[in-house]
Amino acid sequence: MKATILFCFIYFCSFANAHMGNNQLNNMINESLLSYIDRQVGLSGEAANNRENKTIYICVDNYPLNFSFSEEISKKNVRFVSLQNPAMQKTFKRNRIYRFCFTETTLERNQLRITVSSRNVSIPKRNHINVAIVDWGTFVYEFSCDKQEWELKESTFGGV
């Protein structure tokens, strides 16, 4: 019995890993996140010279199962962190404010909406976290039955 369960587990794990390379959702999230980061880097370069180039922290919580960030994103000036990590609270207390990228996906009818938003996160007082939305990018994908894949239909950016 244990051997059968172990065999089924290994089979399903290898099946899931075989399809990871062609995971359209992962590709769409990576493309959206990369586009958003490139826009942020471009905006900071166009801003006044006294604005320093800060590291963008990407919150890794709440991504799909087996999600992996693309190499292009890893090469950017980003750090991957989890807000669930207790060591992050010490980092917040030392440096006060960080800019985090959060990603959220919603499916409505035949459209997949991926929203990437930057938020300033700080801990000004003990056990109290402040989160303020700074700006966002929304990427709307629509499924094409002819091509059997998702296509980017609209990108909008906004800010406070």
Helix content: 25-40%
Kindly estimate the percentage of residues that lie in beta strands according to DSSP: 35-45%
The SSE string, one letter per element, is HHEHEHEEEE
Order of strands, main sheet, comes to: 2-1-3-4-5-6
Oligomer: single chain
How is this structure best described in words?
A hairpin with a 4-residue loop joins strand 5 (128-144) and strand 6. The chain has one domain (24-159). The protein has helices at residues 2-18, 24-46, 71-74, 87-95; strands spanning 56-59, 78-81, 98-108, 111-125, 128-144, 149-159. It starts with a helix and ends with a strand. It has a six-stranded mixed beta sheet with strand order 2-1-3-4-5-6, covered by helices on one side. The chain is elongated, with a radius of gyration of 19 Å. It is an alpha/beta fold and 160 residues long.
